[in-house]
Amino acid sequence: MSNFKSPKCSYCKKPVADQNLIVNAHSYGLSDKTKVCSEECKVQFQAFLDYTNKYKFLFLGGILISSIICFFHISGVLLLGIIIAIFPFVTPHTIEILGVKKSKVLGRVIGIGISAIVTMSWGDLL
Ligand SMILES: [Zn+2]
Predict the structure, then answer these.
(1) pLDDT above 90 for 115
(2) What is the pTM of this model?
(3) How far is the CA of 74 from the centre of ligand 1 (A)?
(4) How far is the CA of 14 from the centre of ligand 1 (A)?
(5) pLDDT score, position 68
C-alpha cells in the first residue's frame, strides 16, 4: 500500500505497536476503535472521555452563558477563557491531528491566553 502510514497513538502520538490496544471514543465523535500505544495511554484517554462526558453540559452551558455576557460586558470573554482552560474540549479533528495529550495543552494555552489578554487590557476595555 502506497498510502500506508503506521497508526499513531491517539493520546500521545507515538507509533502504535500493539494493534489490540483500542479505546471506544465514539462519545467524542471519534472512532470506536481509536488506537493507543500503551495501557497508560488507554487509561489516560479513558479518563479524558469520562471527564468530557461528565462535564460536557456544564462546558456547553458555560460557553453559552459567557457568550451572552460578552454582548454586555468584557467579563464574558474572561469567563469564556477560564471555561476553556478548565475544560479544554477541543474538536475531534484536533485530537486526530495532535492527540489528546497535546490537544489538552493547546486548549489550556488558548483559555489562559484569552483570560490573560482580557485581564491585561481590562482598563482599556472598560
Ligand atoms: Zn500513547
Answers:
(1) yes
(2) 0.85
(3) 39
(4) 6
(5) 96
